[in-house]
Amino acid sequence: MNTDPRPSEHASPCDAAADWFVRLHSGTVSKADLRLFEQWRQADPEHDRQYRNVCRISGAAQHLSAQALRAILKQDAHPATPQQHRRLSRRAFGLGLVGACSSVLVMGVLHRQGLFDEPLETYHLQTRRGEHQELALPDGSILRANTDTLAIARLYEGRRTVELRRGEVFFSVARSTRSPFIIDAGSTEITVTGTRFNVSRTDSAVQVAVESGSVEVSGGRWWNRRTRRLAAGQAVTAYHDAAPEGIRTVDVTNIAAWQRGDIIFDDTPLALALEELNRYLPHPVHLDDTALRSHRISGIVRSGKPEAMLEMLPDFAPVSVHRQADGQIRILPR
Question: What are the FecR protein domain coordinates in residue numbering (predicted)?
Fold first, then answer.
C-alpha cells in the first residue's frame, strides 16, 4: 500500500488534484502534508486550476465520513464499473461539473455511497413573509414551515433528506431505523431516526432545538467538524462553517413558539435576533457595529407585530434605531 501523501509524479494534474482532495478530507492529514500540498498547488497554475475544479464537488465530502474517505486511501477493492462511470459522467455534466477531473476510484466510491442517487420523490415547501405551511410526507413525517422559508424534501431508497435553504421548520419525524432522516442546512447537518425538533437557518447560523427524542448535529469545516448529540429540552447553535457550540438547556414549551404567534429571544446574540426578526419585517434591519453582534438580549414579541421589538430594543441594549427614507433600518451604538 502506498502511504506517501504525495500523488505520483507521473499522475495527471486532474488525478493528482483528486488524490489531494481525498487526502485533505480524510481526517489524517498532517502539517507536513499541508506543506506538500501547497508546494504542489503552487508549482504549476494547472495544478491550482484542476484542484479548484475538483473542489466544485466538495459538497460530496459532507456526505462521506472520515472513515469512508480513509478507506479510499487504503484500498481499491471495488472500483466503479465502466457503465457506472459513464452514468456518473452524464450526471456530472448535468450538474455543471465538467472539467472536474476525479479518479474512477473516488467517483466510484461516491457513487456507491448514494451521493448521485436519484430521489424517488421530491417535495417543495415554501412560504412567503407572514405565511405558515405544512407538508405531510408519505412516511408519516410532518414538516411545518414558518414565515419566509424554503425547504426541499427528497425521499431515497434507504434515507430521507431535507435541504433547508432558509427559514424555519418544525419536524415531526416518523421513526425508521432503516431510513435515517437527514437535514442539510449548509455546512450544518442534522441526523435523526424519529423525533420532534425545530431547525432555524439564517444568514450566519443554524439553530436546532429538540422537543422529544434525540438528534445529532454536525458542523464545521472538514478539519474541525464536530457532532453534538441533543436530547429533549436541549438546543445548539452552529455558525456558518464552524463547529456547533456548546449544548444549552431550553424550555420545551418555547421551542416552536412561532406556531402560536410568538417570537422568543432567550439570551440570544443581538446579531442572530435581528436576522430572525428580518424574516418578519417588510424592510431589513442592519447591524453595522461588530462589537454589538454578541450583545445578548431576551424578550417576547408577537410575530404579527415585529416592529415592537425594535421599539423596545434601546431599553435593553446600548443601541439606537435609525429609520432611513427607503424603509431600511440601521442599528447603531449609543
Answer: 125-216
Rounded Cα distance, 64 and 62, in Å = 6
- Region 261-333: CATH code: 3.55.50.30
What does CATH list as the number for 121-253?
Answer: 2.60.120.1440
In Å, how far are 123, 274, 284, 327 from 293, measured between CA atoms? 36, 9, 16, 22
The pairing of strands 285-287 and 329-333 is: parallel
With cut-offs at 50, 70 and 90, classify the pLDDT of residue 116.
low
Angle between helices 104-112 and 82-94 (to 10 degrees): 80
CA dist 277 and 272 (Å) reads 9
Global pTM value: 0.69
If one compares 331 and 93, the residue with the highest pLDDT of the two is 331
Helix 45-54 / helix 13-24 crossing angle, nearest 10 deg: 60
Residues ≥6 apart with Cβ < 8 Å to 208: 188, 190, 197, 198, 199, 215, 217, 230, 235, 236, 237, 238
Specify the residue for cell string 430594543. 313
244 three-class SS = coil
Taking only the tens place, the pLDDT of each residue in 226-243 is 999 999 999 999 998 889
Rounded-to-integer distance, Cα 52 and Cα 32, Å:
21
For the purposes of burial, counting CB atoms within 10 Å of the CB of 249, is it exposed (0-12), middle (13-18) or buried (19 or more)?
exposed
Q: Let me know the angle formed at the C-alpha of 185 by 310 and 222, rounded to the nearest 5 degrees.
A: 120
> Which three three-digit cell numbers place residue 63?
456526505
pLDDT in tens, 68-87: 555 554 544 444 454 444 44
Query: What are the residue boundaries of the structural domains of the chain, listed by start?
Result: 13-112, 121-253, 261-333
Q: Of 23, 3, 1, which Cα lies nearest the Cα of 223? A: 23
